[in-house]
Amino acid sequence: MKEETSLYSGQFNPGDNISCALRGHEDYRSPSVYAPKLPSVSVRLSGEITEGSSVTLNCSSDANPAANYTWYKKNVNPDLQPLSKDPQLVFISIQSSDSGEYYCTTENQLGKRTSEYIFIDVKCE
Predict the structure, then answer these.
(1) Dihedral over alpha carbons 16, 22, 24, 26 (to 10 degrees)
(2) How much of the chain is in helix, strand and coil states, percent to nearest 5?
(3) What is the mean pLDDT of each successive set of 10 residues along the chain, which is 125 residues long?
(4) Taking CA 83 as the corner, what is the angle to CA 81 and CA 85, rounded to the nearest 5 degrees?
(5) Nearest CA to 109 among 52, 75, 73, 65?
(6) CATH T-level assignment (fold) for domain 40-123
(7) What is the pTM of this model?
(8) Beta 100-108 vs 40-44: how paired, if at all?
(9) Which stretch of DSSP H or E encloses residue 17?
(10) CA distance 69 to 41
């Protein structure tokens, strides 16, 4: 069996989908790999956020290979411990000191993206 390799040495743009195929079999491409798409953030709650309530922030992004997620709070040094390395940031008993703007990053071997900020306003009971 003859082995053949091919190397691409150009640049890829952040939105590119990359796949390969054997010469002569271009209809049978490999699955695409790509950097994370712009992550979207959402909050799961019903009504106002009050102290002591449970709040979950969700971050989602399409990526292949799968992205790693990291949550941060705006104006807090990101070199310190991130808040979470999961797609969700969970507050079991949120406090007024947790009020502020949060964002997530998604990263794989092909790139890194940062979400918009989501504002959380925790009301005192």
Answers:
(1) -30
(2) 0, 35, 60
(3) 71 76 85 91 82 93 95 82 92 93 95 94 86
(4) 95
(5) 65
(6) Immunoglobulin-like (2.60.40)
(7) 0.80
(8) unpaired
(9) none
(10) 12
